Automatic annotation (TrEMBL):
Family matches, as Gene3D superfamilies: 3.40.50.1360, Winged helix-like DNA-binding domain superfamily/Winged helix DNA-binding domain
Protein name per Swiss-Prot or TrEMBL: Transcriptional regulator
Family stated for the protein in its record: Belongs to the SorC transcriptional regulatory family.
Keywords: DNA-binding, Transcription, Transcription regulation
InterPro entries: HTH_MarR-typ, NagB/RpiA_transferase-like, SorC_transcr_regulators, Sugar-bd_dom_put, WH-like_DNA-bd_sf, WH_DNA-bd_sf
Lineage start: Bacteria, Bacillati, Bacillota, Clostridia, Thermoanaerobacterales
HTH marR-type domain location: 23-60
GO molecular function: carbohydrate binding; DNA binding; DNA-binding transcription factor activity
Protein origin, superkingdom: Bacteria
Pfam families from the UniProt entry: MarR_2 (PF12802), Sugar-bind (PF04198)
Start and end residues of each Sugar-binding domain: 68-316
Native organism: Caldanaerobacter subterraneus subsp. yonseiensis KB-1
Amino acid sequence: MKTMKMDKDLHLFQKISLVAELYYTYGLTQQQIADKLQISRPWVSKLLKKAEELGLVRVEVLTSTSGVKELEEEIQKKYRLKGVKVIKKAVMSDADIVELGKAAANYFISILEPNDVIGVSWGKTLSALANHLIPIYYPDTTVVPLIGGMGHTPSLLSNHIAMQISSAISGKCLLLHAPAFASNKHEKEVFLKNPLVSQVIEKSENIDIALVGLGSLWNSTILEYNYITVNEIKDLEKVGAIGDIALHFIDASGRIVSHPIHERLIAGNLSKIRKSARIMMGVAGGLHKKEIVKAALVGKWIDILVTDIEVAHYLIEN
């Protein structure tokens, strides 16, 4: 019984925090928040009042006056983005990744619309985003993986993250039953002949919102979990790759590099995803991600950036 009460109290606190952030940070009206969260407008007002009592609003004001707000605005202006969210700590541990994921989760809720098709890539940060979504009721949404993925560490894979997000927003979910990388080009063609695979990939190229992690070349999860080899990383480095967006490897100018690994990739085409999506949200933190974050911005691959304070300063100073 005590555990149930603690869970209930935690859920209420999370909802209070979300409502306060939607109202004070993202500028939604009380009625918009009520519609989005399927609660009454008076209840939104009560939650905002509770946020004041708990000091949450005061914390947000302190955050703004500490320079983070100005930093967000400067990055948004410099790179011509639709939005920027900077957490005021450096991402150096799994706990910090969780904080980044929480910030991204709330931002995602603020931009989500009732009939959206959402595409998701993979990785630790997006897994944290999915784990910290406050449940809402958007039954006409659809979540689709942007890349294949089967094997170990399922919690980091695109299919699993898509299922988590669709569950949190009460939407539908499509699954991509294929690995991220086929063994060779012929095997990829075999997978693509399967309608269950090709139809999901086609759907992933016609979305409203894309949620993508940004991977650095040598510190990427794909290397950590042996999805590609060290020799392939070295070859990618030789052709100028500095990291990836949804497993599409790009150079410092944001251009997709020419490399045979892309011939084995089972995923939606990044250029088609960029063209179709109303919003591309990139989520990444830690100084080891600074170059891929900047490349993604320079290449115009993302509209909204969620990152940490150190990467934010790098983006302004370089």
